Amino acid sequence: ETGVTQTPRHLVMGMTNKKSLKCEQHLGHNAMYWYKQSAKKPLELMFVYNFKEQTENNSVPSRFSPECPNSSHLFLHLHTLQPEDSALYLCASSQQLAPAYEQYFGPGTRLTVT
Amino acid sequence: DAKTTQPTSMDCAEGRAANLPCNHSTISGNEYVYWYRQIHSQGPQYIIHGLKNNETNEMASLIITEDRKSSTLILPHATLRDTAVYYCIVRGYDTGTASKLTFGTGTRLQVTL
Questions:
Q1: Which of A45, A86, A84 is nearest to B103 (CA)?
Q2: pLDDT (0 to 100) of residue A40
Q3: What is the per-residue pLDDT for B107?
Q4: What DSSP assignment string belongs to chain B?
Q5: Rounded alpha-carbon distances, angstroms, from residue B39 to A7, A42, A108, B42
Q6: Backbone angles phi, psi at B65, to 5 degrees
Q7: Contacts of A30 in chain B (CB under 8 A)
Q8: Contact present, A10 and A99 (Cβ < 8 Å)
Q9: Phi then psi for A111, rounded to 5 degrees?
């Protein structure tokens, strides 16, 4: 599926680096999400945006900084990360926030913090 | 969100129907039943969802019991590419956030020749 794309697909960064993850959806959706999937743990919702406005921040550390310039693009800015932040970061989008509307996921960015 | 219970793993022969059960006995009236699957290290793939009625799309069928306490995902003709972890998720407004998809441990479906 190419409805939700994420770049880069793999990223290795040191703890002092600053990097950004990019997500783009081509589905005309209004809501976008960042999830984190650590090894052998369930998906964790990090942030939710609706019509470019952040509606949820699930107690995510400030070293993760999201940005949503428009309804089609979502960024996750990373700085001074820790090794335990190594995970698969997934972006998703849905037409609306309501439970009746399914979320479509991108392929994810595999992040390794060294 | 209501909790779900799924078998840890299942096997299915290629070409046969795969029937994946899910129990959600505490589901409330406005909660939807969703199914996703995830192939190792890839993003979850949406399959199907429903509220009360049975649903069918090009990928699968969803059968929800009349009391809504359980459901079954049916892949009509399983192929090797259907080997994945399948997640049954109940999603609604009850917890104060409508956005969350709470993934449990799912059912690991192995399709064999």
A1: A45
A2: 78
A3: 97
A4: ----B--SEEEEETTSPEEEEEE-TT--TTPEEEEEEE-TTS--EEEEEESSS-EE-SS-EEEE-TTSSEEEEEESS--GGG-EEEEEEEE-STTS-S--------EEEEEE-
A5: 19, 14, 12, 6
A6: -65, 160
A7: none
A8: no
A9: -105, 130
The pLDDT of A48-76, averaged and rounded, is 95
Residues in chain B within 8 Å Cβ distance of A105: 43-46
Chain A CA closest to residue B46: A104
> Nearest Cβ partner of B42 from A45, A48, A108?
A108
Inter-chain CB pairs, A–B, below 8 Å? 52
> Does the beta carbon of B96 lie under 8 angstroms from any beta carbon of chain A?
no
Q: Give tens-digit pLDDT for B34-62.
A: 999 999 889 999 999 999 999 999 999 99
Burial (CB count <10 Å: 0-12, 13-18, 19+), residue A13? middle
DSSP class of residue A85 equals G
Residue recorded with tokens 């078998």? B7
Gap between the Cα atoms of A41 and B43, Å rounded? 14
Q: What does the pLDDT look like over A98-108, one tens digit per residue?
A: 889 999 999 99
Q: Which amino acid is located at B104 in the chain?
A: G
The neighbour count for residue A41, using CB atoms within 10 Å, is 10
